[in-house]
Structures are given as C-alpha cells and as structure tokens.
Amino acid sequence: MTVFIFLGSLLAAMAIGLPIAYSLLLSGVALMWHLDLFDAQILAQNVINGADSFPLLAVPFFMLAGEIMNVGGLSRRIVNLALTLVGHKRGGLGFVAIVAACLLAALSGSAVADTAALAALLLPMMVRAGHDKARAGGLIASAGIIAPIIPPSIGFVIFGVAANVSISKLFLAGIVPGLLMGLSIAVTWYFVSKKENITPPPKASWAERIVALRQATWALVLPVIVIVGLKFGVFTPTEAAVVAAVYALFVSTVIYGELKLHQLHEVFVSAAKTTAVIMFLVAAAMVSAWLITVADIPSKMITLLEPFMDNQTLLLLAIMFLVIAVGTAMDMTPTILIMTPVLMPVIKAAGIDPVYFGVLFIMNNAIGLITPPVGTVLNVVAGVGKMKMDEVTKGVMPFMLAQFFVMFMLVFFPSIVTVPAKWLAN
Fold first, then answer.
1. What is the pLDDT of residue 52?
2. Measured CA distances, 1 to 6, 26, 229, 287, 353 (Å)
3. pLDDT at res. 426
4. Is residue 361 within 8 Å of 330, Cβ to Cβ?
5. Is the keyword Translocase in the record (predicted)?
6. pLDDT digits (tens, 9 = 90+) for 37-62
7. Cβ proximity of 107 and 129 under 8 Å
8. Contact 148, 403 (CB under 8 A)
9. 382 Cβ contact list (under 8 Å, min separation 6)
10. Which regions of the chain are under pLDDT 50?
11. Any residues with CB less than 8 A from the CB of 401 and at least 6 apart, and which?
C-alpha cells in the first residue's frame, strides 16, 4: 500500500502536468500523510538539507564550464579538430560528430549542452553534404549522451551524492564504458552511412591538422587536468568543477578572446537557471528519499527481487529493464534521485560493487535521454534542427540499440568496467 501511494501520487501529479520537482514534493506529502508523519517543519528541513551538500557544488560549476566553452569557442575548436582528423572518411562528418562528442564529454559533462553545441555546428554541415537530416540528427543525439558517462559527469555527481559512493571512482570507472558507447555508434554509422552516396570533404593536409590541433590544445588540456588531478588526489570532484570553470573562463577571455565581458552576465544567468532546475529537483527528491527510508520501502524491494538475489547477472538485468521502462517517461536527474535510494540497498544486499552498478545505472539513464516519448536530448536536436520529434526518433533508433547492446554487454562482462577502473584508481 505504501509503494502504491508513493507511485500513484507521483504519477498522478505528473499526469496533470505538474513539474517533476513539485510532483516529488506532493508524493512526499502524500506518503507523510499515509504514515501519519506529516509535519511542515520536517518537509522544509529535508528540502533544505537536500541542497545543502558540498559535492553538489560541482553541478553549477560544471554547468558554467559548459556554457563558457560553447560561447567562448572551445567547443567549436574541438569540432574543427575532429573535422581535420576524420572528416575526409566516408561518412566523415558523422565520425566528426562522434569524435567531437567524446572530446566535449571530457570537458562539460552535460548531455544537453554538448548536444546543443554539436547540433548547431554539425547538423547544418551534414545536411548540406547530403546526409539524411533525421539520421544525422539521431546520430548527434546519440553522440551527445556520451557526456554523462565520460568524466566529468554531472550524472555521476548526483548519483554519488544520493548513493554515498565515491564520485572520483565513478569518474574513473566511466572512461572505458563511455568510449565503448562512442565506438558502438561509430560502427553503426559506418554501416548506415554506406547507404548514402555522398562525397566526403577533401582530406585536410598535415599543416591544417597541426593548426587545428594547436588551436584546440588549450581546450584539450582541461580533461587532462581534471583526470590527473582526481587520480593523484590533487583536488576533489567539486574542486575539479571549479578548476574547469575558471580554466574555461581564462581560456575563453584571455587566450581565445571570444568571450567578451558584456557576455558574461548572460552566460552566468543561463548556467544559474539550469542549475536552479537541477538543484530544486535534488532538494525535492531528498524528501522522498527520507520517506522511502522511513517507510522501509527498500526492504520491500529486496523481498520483491528475492528470486534474483542469488544471481547478480539476473538481478542486474531485471533492474536494467526496470530503469529502461522508467527512462521512457522520466528525465535523467529525477530518475537517479527517485530510484537510487530504493535500489542501493538491493545492490549492497546482493554484493554488487556500487561503483560498477553506478556506471551501468547512469549509462541506462543517459540512454533514456534519447528514448521516446520524453527524450530530453531528442527534443534539443529537434529544436535546434527545426525537425519533428518523430523524425529524430526514427533517426536515433539504430544508434540507441547499439548503445543498449554495450550496456547489456557490460552486465554480462563486468570486468570491462571494474578492471580498468581499479587500474586507473591505483
């Protein structure tokens, strides 16, 4: 009955059009009422405590870094470097999108920001070259969701806070899976692009490549600073976010000179608005997380999944299918915040490595950003490219299936995640 009241009130609130943050608060109030615990002070205290977290400071700074990089020319130089390296291949502009997405993922950690930059820069080029617009949009959308996997990742920060798991370990564990996601859509694009008879751009000379590399060097240094700093304990993930934002601001204003002082206000306001949405979601979800614990819903979930507890692979498969179903109707951040307190006790009871599960969980949620009908990243591509949602959905299907294949492969072969993660951590 407790689970029914929580889920029923949450889904009912969402069905009538309430924003997810308010729906979470409403479901929390309903659950408090059912448990005879209603107290406005407890509600307010949990909302405040939900946002009062030092690790969560990484979110606004990574968002700010992403905004600065898009406006300050770092993203454009990354795309130009990828263009000189692989643009001449058959279907080269698609490979440019994939390479650029992997590089941008190591800079901002935001799927929406990276996808918007890629769609604005590359989608018109791909259409002019003769590529099918829906297919090109689908490729860019699937490439954009690599951002929450390759560090630094806002998704890992939120999961690490909600699950009390080391964010640094999550960052390092996400490198190989993120690259595998990029490789999977590259292989898919190779076969898909064969159907299109398109003349690729001329091959860039080594001189042009060197110039592009030199122009992008300042941008490429950032992920090296972040990963090396985390590995050797120079700074925490939160401090890494500050370093990323300050470094991007310095490069954009002093080195490249593309970000002018009069643009700073707009950049800061844009980052603040996005951050406010995420932080309010986190704060609202902490009410539900507290009540989930009080109502002992995790133990009920463990009982429900009892038949799978002796087989970690079957348990992970069951959870992954559950997350896929939720991801079709809910955005990434609320899914993480709602499901993490419920699933983590199950994962610990089954003896599954929380870092390994965190990588799979965030991968699944990232793919959820391109699964209809919600598909936030699909909406970004449709908006930037002035396309219908149905067209982008059709174009993304082969790439989405390829990324699901990688995720399930990691379920069956956990050493692909755990071995590189331990090696990087040591």
1. 74
2. 9, 17, 48, 19, 31
3. 65
4. no
5. no
6. 777 777 777 777 767 777 777 778 88
7. no
8. no
9. 137, 388, 389, 391, 392
10. none
11. none
Question: Rounded to whole angstroms, how far apart are CA atoms 3 and 300?
Answer: 9
Instruction: Say how far apart CA 401 and CA 411 lie, in whole Å.
Output: 15
Q: pLDDT for 98-149, tens place per residue?
A: 988 888 888 777 788 788 888 888 888 888 778 888 999 999 999 999 988 9
Tell me, what's the pLDDT at 138? 92
Are 360 and 174 spatial neighbours (Cβ–Cβ below 8 Å)? no
User: What is the spatial distance between Cα 8 and Cα 15, in angstroms, rounded to a whole number?
Assistant: 10
Q: Which tokens sit at 116?
A: 């918007």
Those residues with Cβ within 8 angstroms of residue 304's Cβ, 6 or more apart along the chain or in another chain: none
pTM: predicted TM-score of the whole model, two decimal places: 0.82
Q: How far apart are CA 351 and CA 349, in angstroms?
A: 5
Tokens read off for 350: 């089954």
Distance CA 426, CA 420 (A): 10
Whether 67 contacts 46, CB under 8 Å: no
pLDDT score recorded for residue 362: 94
What own/partner pairs with CB < 8 Å and gap ≥ 24 does 183-187 have? 184/399, 184/402, 184/403, 184/405, 184/406, 185/98, 185/139, 185/142, 185/143, 185/399, 185/402, 185/403, 186/95, 186/98, 187/402
Closest Cα to residue 145, out of 196, 171, 108, 172?
108
